[in-house]
Amino acid sequence: MRILSLTEDTRKNLLEDLLKRSPNSYKQYEDSVNEIIENVRLNGDSAVFSYTKQFDGADIDSETVRVTRAEIDEAYELIDDKLIEVMKKSLSNIRIYHEKQKQYSWFDSRPDGVMLGQKVTPLARVGVYVPGGKAAYPSSVLMNVLPAKVAGVKKIVMATPCSREGKVNPATLAAADLAGVDEIYKAGGAQAIAALAFGTDSIPKVDKIVGPGNIYVALAKKAVFGYVSIDSIAGPSEILVLADETANPRYVAADLLSQAEHDELASAILITDSETLAQQVSTEIDCFTARLSRKDIIEKSLENYGYILVAANMEDAIGAANEIASEHLEILTANPFETMMKIENAGAIFLGEYASEPLGDYFAGPNHVLPTNGTAKFFSPLSVDDFIKKSSIISYSREALEPIYKDIVQFAESEQLTAHANSIKVRFEE
Length: 430
Hints:
Blueprint (H helix, E strand, L loop, with lengths): L2 E3 L2 H12 L10 H14 L1 H12 L12 H10 L2 H19 L6 E4 L5 E8 L2 E5 L8 H14 L3 E6 L9 H10 L3 E4 L2 H10 L9 E3 L4 H10 L4 E2 L7 E6 L5 H12 L6 E6 L2 H15 L5 H11 E5 L3 H11 L3 E5 L3 H5 L7 E4 L5 H6 L25 E8 L2 H4 L3 H10 L3 H8 L5
Parallel strand pairs: 1-11, 4-5, 4-7, 5-6, 7-8, 9-10, 9-12, 10-11, 12-13
Antiparallel strand pairs: 2-3, 3-14
Helix pairs in contact: 2-3, 2-8, 2-9, 4-7, 5-6, 5-7, 6-7, 8-9, 10-11, 17-18
């Protein structure tokens, strides 16, 4: 793994390199995605079923597109009972964590008859997209569905690709059933996003679409934003480890590789003020990679976006971490809590040598749907907030409005909005 000194030039070049992985950099796919979306918008089911045959090789129709209870029951039979128990434990942790995020309506009254407030309402219908290509991620099902359930969403619809035989991954089905998904449809790719955004005869329209996917899914979500809401345009996975000389190099190496194995575009970065640690981690990475099952993917990932940066001091290292704004940030320093207080930009922060990134992916409870590609500077993890909407409440009595109505009239007239002004004036005519 390449080792570089952290300088202004290396920091600038690194940031430019990482931004190349953003879905915004893959505009060559946009025309294809837009064509799919428009076809589904105009032709509904027939377009979805045609694309399912073309891309997934499955013959799906209006009778088979929705997953049945029998198919879900069959999925349970195909899964190890121990995995089911693990998913139930994970589900419980995720629910408990997200229940602490719940927001409630509030109202504030004054003696003169003014009442102001905020009404919190859950979204009515949410669509969850779940990938089903090279790998299945039941953990993502739990992470996307449970905040919606806690928020009180009335109907949760899931779309996921099926095999040539028309089967959905059994772990995905079991996770969806455990989490409380209402309806599951066999549809993948940009066509599934379009179906959820516009609705078809078989697949219902939703108010918001969440969930990860490939570049076609990401660009499709971007294209339908405005017709529906979306969570974010997710980029490839990334991890940044901030470590000093006290860190265990084997732990650091193992944690970097936990993200590098996702795909060739995944980013794994170590920033440290210890040259010794840098060399030790590089050696451990070589040892681990040689025996890991996804060796080819890891090697390409590290070749493309793997870095060990040696900073002059920890302050410079922290500054670089804040600029990169990584999806996952592990802090392995002598005092990780003190270091954490200086971090401004990160999707999820893992403190100490026993809080490795996969703990957050699967089990701890905080959401693993996180901002990528530097968007942690202005985006947050998926949460209950993503599944609610807020309405402002305003009520005034005549007694409360009378002392201020001329102020409102003056403001409106200064903007030449005389109908606005008149709307207030008529209430105090002689």
